[in-house]
Amino acid sequence: MGFRYLTKMSSSDEIIARYPLEPELSALKRSRDSAIRDVICGRSDKFILVIGPCSADNEAAVCDYVNRLGKLQREVDDKLILIPRIYTNKPRTTGMGYKGILHQPDPEKAPDIVGGIVALRKMHIRALRESGLTAADEMLYPENHTYLADMLSYVAVGARSVENQQHRLTASGVDIPVGMKNPTSGDLSVMLNAVEAAQNGHVFTYQGWAVNTSGNDLAHTVLRGAVNQYGRSLPNYHYEDLQRLVELYKTRKLKTQACLVDTNHANSAKRFKEQPRIVLDVLHSRRLSSEIRELVKGFMIESYLEEGMQAIGDHVYGKSITDPCLGWEDSKELVLRIADQV
User: Fold this and answer.
1) Are the C-beta atoms of residues 168 and 39 closer than 8 Å to each other?
2) Phi/psi at 136 (nearest 5 deg)?
3) Which residue, 74, 168, 189, 244, has fewest beta-carbon neighbours within 10 Å?
């Protein structure tokens, strides 16, 4: 076999015992989870923003950013729920390049999975303790979800993972919202199939156990745009796209119907400064259609302290080393504008 076994991984129970969540933070999570659940289920008119860096590569800069979000949350508390995007696993199209803090706690050093598990848990705890905001992370590796399950309030399943059986089945046992992105092909039926799978219970193997899940009513769709056979980005956030998703939802017997719109990726063709324009377009569509308003519960926005992106090793504090992001001032202005219009 081509496998060389490096280090036996500690279980999530062992890691959590070493780096536990304080009782007051657990209570905060329960309160936040309840508020977010009410939005997804339609019991609250608040709007969700999953907002933050493309990848959480540096604890100090990420926590600085999330602390600013925490202060901003108090300004918009009557309208918005801000969920910081602390993505510690980074999917790569070719498998090459920086794969997130799980793989490399220091982007300039060799991979260290054992150190990465500890680093990402410590960063999430620090961000929650300092800001009062529970975060979102991506479920890139379903087996690893339990390392952070006690502190996350949102999980995303990406465009390259949404067709994977293990992601869908694991999502069916998660008790927080799971956003299923449309695949890069743009096929909305694939995304809706994933939501339907996650909303129902299953028996399967997980972390060496045979398990039985109860189903996750909070699984929902995320529109992130598509890429055609020529590599051209095709957005799917326009009025007609949202109305089409409304109609497709009507053909499914789903327990909860909700959607978030990803304002970057193929929707913006990674032109990060287009994100505010896309936000305004979707908010206009919500005003035109009560059905779209009921369906679209929020946005995903890529944002960091400094706008744009940099190469690994450039050492610009708070600037993305993966996809380019909005800077803080533009992000703050956008959040306040959304709060004023929802």
Assistant:
1) no
2) -110, 145
3) 74
**What's the Cα-to-Cα distance from 36 to each of 48, 156, 258, rounded to whole Å?**
8, 14, 12
The CATH superfamily label for domain 12-341 reads Aldolase class I (3.20.20.70)
Cβ atoms of 209 and 253 within 8 Å: the answer is: no
Residue 77 has what pLDDT? 98
Identity of the residue numbered 325:
C
Q: Which two tokens stand for residue 198?
A: 């996650």
CA distance 167 to 128: 26
Domain boundaries, the chain: 12-341
Q: Are 153 and 135 in contact (CB under 8 A)?
A: yes
> What pLDDT, in 10s, does the model give residues 168-216?
999 999 999 999 999 999 999 999 999 999 999 999 999 999 999 999 9
Residue-wise pLDDT tens digits, 283-298: 999 999 999 999 999 9
In the three-class reduction of DSSP (H, G, I as helix; E, B as strand; rest coil), residue 242 is classed as: helix
> Which residue in the block uniquely carries the two structure tokens 């926590």?
63
Tens of pLDDT along 116-148?
A: 999 999 999 999 999 999 999 999 999 999 999
Asked whether the beta carbons of 46 and 81 are under 8 A apart, the reply is: yes
Per 3-state DSSP, what percentage of the chain is helix, strand, and coil (rounded to 5)? 40, 20, 40
Tokens coding 5 = 């076994």
Question: Is 147 in contact with 188 (CB distance < 8 Å)?
Answer: no
Give the three-state DSSP class for 79.
coil
Q: Which residue is listed with tokens 């940099």?
A: 310
On average, the pLDDT of the chain sits at 96
Question: Is the alpha carbon torsion for 308, 306, 60, 314 positive or negative?
Answer: positive
Return d(Cα 318, Cα 306) in angstroms, integer: 6
d(CA 213, CA 204): 9
CB of 275 closer than 8 Å to CB of 326: yes
